[in-house]
Amino acid sequence: MNVASKPALGQATLDDRRLAKVSARDVDVFYGAKQALKSVSIDIRPNEVTALIGPSGCGKSTFLRCLNRMNDLIESCRVVGSIWLDGEDIYTSGLDPVQLRARVGMVFQKPNPFPKTIYDNVAYGPRIHGLSRSRAELDEIVMTSLEKAGLIDEVKDRLQEQGTGLSGGQQQRLCIARAIAVSPEVILMDEPCSALDPIATAKVEELIDELRQRYTIVIVTHSMQQAARVSQRTGFFHLGELVECGETEQIFTNPRHKLTQGYITGRFG
Amino acid sequence: MIDERTARRLARRHAAERRFKLYGMASVAVALAFLVALLVTIVGKGYTAFAQTEIAVEVSFDAGAVKEGDFAGLVKSALAARFPEVTARNEKRELFGLISSGADRVLRDMVRDDPGLIGQRRVVTLLASDDVDMVVKGHVTAESGRLNARQAEWLASLRQAGAVSLGFNTTFFTAGDSREPELAGVGGAVVGSLLAMVVTLCLAFPLGVATAVYLEEFAPKNRWTELIEVNINNLAAVPSIVFGLLGLALFLNFLNMPRSAPLVGGLVLTLMSLPVIIIASRAALKAVPPSIREAARGLGASRLQVVTHHVLPLAMPGILTGTIIATAHAIGETAPLLMIGMVAFIVDIPAGFLDPATVLPVQVYLWADSPERAFVERTSAAIMILLAFLAVMNLLAIVLRKKFERRW
Ligand SMILES: Nc1ncnc2c1ncn2[C@@H]1O[C@H](COP(=O)(O)OP(=O)(O)OP(=O)(O)O)[C@@H](O)[C@H]1O
Ligand SMILES: [Mg+2]
User: What are the structural domains, with CATH classification, of chain A?
Assistant: First the structure.
């Protein structure tokens, strides 16, 4: 396997990285002595959905978690390289991780609503960041977030019920509503549909497409179809390296790297 | 189709399962039998302590004696009037021995509440002495007990006249310790236990939870924290008397705190229950799913916010259960308190954290050591109060757990 030569790498980055919403250069990530990411460089463009695909354990989640410094929570984890958000280095510029996470939201693989009411779930972010001055303003934020997440019709009469009492798909959309309630600029989604049935998946995918108007989205997925359906750009990871990144259409119809080709056609190995 | 061998294996597996169930039920039955035996013995021995023999006599509230405060004299003259045939000095002393030496207090209280009584005659039920009490309750026969023949005769005559009755023993709940069993009560010990428990709870709960939260949520995992963890686990296994010695050396000898004080008792019990509370709290914190922490961190909550808004509320049922069980355990502890002087004979009910006091288990220990027959039932009754204390606390733990329990 000759991953070292990367003919398509030039496509992953822009000439001027300041034009990108999120820009990563030569990012290495180590868990203790083990290297999980090797020199990953990629530019995430604003108002696009970027899909990250690749076999299990190749470092997709690791990369995603670098973008809002969630890896800080793992003690053994060390990140090298530079990651910029709007031209500002998120690791060295003195930007507070707490502030960063308000700008770069995250939706996890498993729906993880707080064991609180639906209202409190969505209101939690705005509350801790002081985004509302009055109760009415907070109500407004909660309602619009639920609306944007396409959940409002299902829950508007039961806002005071437990968020954990919703179905899996509803819980995941609640988590999306919770993430967009703090008005982030970027939303990171780590396999958001892996626990959902096809109908709920379709709803979330539709939602992602709508959210693209306002937010920049990075989504990790194991479903080629999903990547093809929702994303404009796709990056393929393999063994901690970004093998190829480009327009989704191009990646799926005309991959340049034979590893990518093998993966998307299912002949992997 | 099931062939022969599979059928045999299946049968063996079912038989093993039935056997295991049987063992389980047998061990539960044995445990229950022990518990029932314990309760039956204690209740059977102790329930009579809640009643107390009283003797009704007609007292004349002589103005002169009242003025002098000689209420004991009133009791004596009432008895002398009831048995006019008793004249000899030593016989009289025996006669007065039927009534408790603390009986005059009732009369004093009566006069204080109603001064109009002075100069009048009233039938008053007076506390009988413990020797009479034992005979009336049937714990000893009149012959084998400490009453002599004459006293037994007087008692018989009083009983015939219907003057002897069993009343509810309020003294047992309100009084402090006493050399006279009929005047002794658990009131002082209960108050002492409560004061010590307040100190323990107020110190051990916040300290234990703070330690657990720091170790679980903030501390880096390195050799130092590992060392601390091992030590905490070891401390939880240290015999309680060692904590008593530590308390003696530290609080009494070094810091010069008062002996026998509930404050010091509470401090020693705090030392003892802290490791248990820390371990229970850490387990409760560990049980909170990491996904909740990630969700909150992902929204931009700081570490402290994650803990106070999400982790602690979710861990609270477990923390409270651990704390209450640890405190309940501390309440039943005797050995460390002996070391700091809480074993002293204390009559007064403590009014504050620095007053000399004793606690329930120590009271049980003291009474169990007393020679008087009447202390036997009081020992059992004090154990019943202690057990009721513990049962209430455990119930509280269950209620709190049920109340705060949440699913995710
Ligand atoms: N907390 C951690 N500690 C140590 N190693 C880790 C940790 N998290 C991930 N790794 C390692 O880093 C590598 C990349 O993991 P990562 O979770 O990023 O993979 P992934 O591409 O998201 O896989 P999947 O598709 O299965 O989710 C793996 O080899 C994994 O074993
Ligand atoms: Mg992953």
Answer: 9-114+185-264 (3.40.50.300)
